[in-house]
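User: Good morning. I'm curious how zinc ion would be positioned relative to this chain. Could you predict the structure with it bound?
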Amino acid sequence: MAVIVDAHYHLMQREWFPEPLWETLASHLGVHVSGDRGQKLTAQEFATKYFPTLWDPEGELLFRKMDALGINTTVMLVDDFGLALGEAAVSIEGQNKAFADLARKHPTRLIACAGIDPRRKNAVTILRRCVEEWGMRGVKYHPDAGWDPNGRESYRLLERIQEWGIPVVTHTGFFFPPLHSKHAHPLLLDDVCSDFPDLKIIAAHSGRPLMWETVASMAAIHFNLHGDLAGWQTMVVRDRPRFRQILRRYIDIAGVEKILWGTDDPVYDVLIPTTQYLEAMRALPEDTSDGLRFTTAEIDAILGGNAARLFGL
Ligand SMILES: [Zn+2]
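Assistant: Good morning! Here's the predicted structure, ligand included:
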C-alpha cells in the first residue's frame, strides 16, 4: 500500500485561537454547510453544533480518523493570528510547544509545523526553540494576518528556515475577513522562490479557489514551489468533472511531484467527510469516460509520496 499523508491539518482547542477567529469561522462555515449535510446554519447554530467536535488537544479524534482512513502521517500546522485578531488565551509559544510535544510522542505518525507571525519581536527566538529544541519539522505562514511574505521580517525567518532545510507551508488564496487576503496572493511568492532557491515552499490550498493557475504556472518555473489541495474537497466531491479537468491541467503544468494531498481538517470534515474526499481521490484512475487519464502512480504521489519526500519521512 502506498503511503498516505495528510499534508495540512490543524489540531484545535478553543484557547489556541483568538475569539474573533472562531467568530469568523462560525459565520462563514455556517453559510457553507450545505450539500449532503443539509441546511445553512447561523453562526451561533454552527458554533454550538460543530465547535465541540473540533477540539482535540491530545489528538485522540485525529488518531481515530487516521486509523479508520489509513492515513499514515499527518502534518499539523500551528496558525498565528495573535497580532491580527488579538492574542489567544494560550501564548503562541505555548501553542507551538503543545503541537511539538504531541508530535514527539508519535514521531512516525505526526509532524508538527511551527506557526509564528514574523512581526513578533521574538519571532526568531521562538522559531529557533521550536525547531532546534522541540524538533518541529516545518513552518506555517499566514501572511493574510497582515504582513508581506516578501517583507524584511519574513525574510529574516526564511533565511533560518532555508538553513534548517525544512519546508515552509504558506497560506495562499482567500481567507475570511477581517483577515487580509491580498497578502496571500500566490504571486507574492515569486520573489520568495527566487530569493531562497533551496527553501522548500508549499503554497497551502494552491491559491484556492481560482488562483490555482498562478500556483501551477509558478511551480512550473520554480523547482522549489509546491501546492497542497487542502480545502479542495468541496469541488472534489460535489463537482467531480470540473476537479478532474483542473487536476489534470495542474499536473500537466506543474508536474505531479509538486502537488500534495491535504484536508485542512478537522474543519473541512464538517463540510465534506474526509472519507469521501479520499475515496474520490483514489477513484480518479478508474474513470476514463471523460477522456482524462490519471495513473495510480500519479495519485499515489499526490496522496503521500510527495509529502513523504518533502518532509523527509
Ligand atoms: Zn489550514
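The chain has one domain: 5-310. The chain has 14 helices and eight strands.
Let me know if you'd like a different ligand tried.
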